[in-house]
Amino acid sequence: MMTFCFTGIRSFPKLWKSNPYLGLSPGHPYIFLFLKDCYGIRSQQKWFSLKTASPQNTKAMNLLVARARSLQKGDEGRNKQVSSESHLFAAGAAKKRSQMNPQSRDHALLPVRNNIIQLPTKPLNSEEWDKLKEDFKGKANFENWIISQMAHHNSPIDVAKSLLAWVAIKNNGIVSYNLLVKYLYLCVFHKQTSEVFDVYEIMKARYKSLESGANTLLIRGLIHSDRWKEALLLLEDIKKAMIPSKKNYNDCIQGALLHQDVNIAWNLYQELLSHDIIPMMETLKAFFDFGKDIKDDQYSNKLLDILLYLRNNQLYPGESFAHSIKTWFESIPEEQWKGKFTTIQKSGQCSCCGKNIESIHLSPEEYEFLKGKVMRDVIDGGDQYRKTTPQELKRFQNFVKNCPPFDIVIDGLNVAKMFPKARESQVLERVVSQLAKQNLRVLVLGRKHMLTSRARWRKDEMEKVQKQASCFFADNISEDDPFLLYATLHSGNHCKFITKDLMRDHKACLADAKTQRLFFKWQQGHQLAIINKFPGSKLTFQHILSYDTVVQTTGDSWHIPYDEDLVERYSYEVPTKWLCLQRKT
Questions:
Q1: What is the pLDDT of residue 32?
Q2: How buried is 325 (Cβ within 10 angstroms: 0-12 exposed, 13-18 middle, 19+ buried)?
Q3: CA neighbours closer than 13 Å in the CB half-sphere of residue 86
Q4: Which strands sit side by side in the sheet containing 552-553, from one edge to the other?
């Protein structure tokens, strides 16, 4: 165990003096660094069927997408679904779906342990600490347990200080490294600069080098003080063992900007990017906030480069950052920028300025590039995500090759199970029938067991499916997704697909970030979602995005999608709110 003896450094009361510290933002989540302790198949069945080919019907396809409509207002309770005014990938949609489908929630919650003892709220003397330790019934080391709990609950500094004083008295002035670091966390959290300095001096005197967790805390504790450049030395110490984290870079950049050293801030930013680290949004926000007082074309161009970085990496600023961007644009002298917060209409027009947002659809070059990548990385090279045999995949490829292009590809098993209370074959037949009536060429992908007549898979309904659509039934152990991706991409850019699966595993198979972004863009423009309204009236589909949710500019305008503060957006969702910036001409 690493320890430090206080004897011979300075008197203990003087060491733990308290002075107010103004600077550190509260609530920074460094605490996590220090709480680590804490079937039979019938041979006569037809495994695939081919519907008589009809000319490709693009008009009907467009009609299907255009007919997406919202649910009736009368739907309530469990039957109430996400409005079709939204879309499958809208920020917050997944959260709403989970709330409306309580049976899908994970109820396996971790058991909650009651506190063995109550944390003190005021400093204790030695006798009181002795009594508290005597009352402690846990198996862990009392001192480590109590300091971890203090750090977790952000206990007052003077309470933690009384703990360390008691430990030092008991152990001939020795306080363990673990206790010292967790006390440092509390000093940083409570913005006690002088205490941070004292702990720093103790650590420098005792240890030749510190682990990254202590360095991270010290960096954050120093950046708002006149000793902020020492944080840069600590950053260099971290580099000797590892690449610093985005938090380390953020703190040092914030310190440099706070102390008006712009060159150091930009150099650290470029260094961060050179490590392929995605910067924290608060780092980028700091540059814009600082830029309000800078009238310099070179600095302005760097801020515009940040916006292009957000675009190229499909990143979205938070609401506060969006306000900073707006304020900076409007502060540029003689350019007369005006910003407003708005939304984008289904047509792809900005509700504020009326300009069209970039299309979600890939260019022919992008489509061919993505198609080739998916074929190589997911279909041929994605063994970790599928159980399909090469022989069966070849059989399917030959099947698709001999078919005209499809308009819709359906994951039959996935769609059939969308409505748990309904019979699977009935659900699938209804979906296929509705699409077939619009003269769309449909492919249904399924498993062979779906053709085995039983309670939830009626033979007559599956025969209707095979009459109205081309069908391919794979082995029961096979994964459907590679077939779905292959058939959809092979059919052309007009082809859409239907499944609840959000394809995150297959996106992860793709080798680089650029291809993953193209895949997600293609997915947003091609994946149809059925609104859960069964049984009852005609099935409806959520509308597919017609525009690309990405930072974009025309020179005299910027449109920037941003995350709302109170909306929980999952990684596979996109924001629905935008900042519209227009320059008066």
A1: 32
A2: buried
A3: 21
A4: 337-342, 577-583, 557-562, 552-553
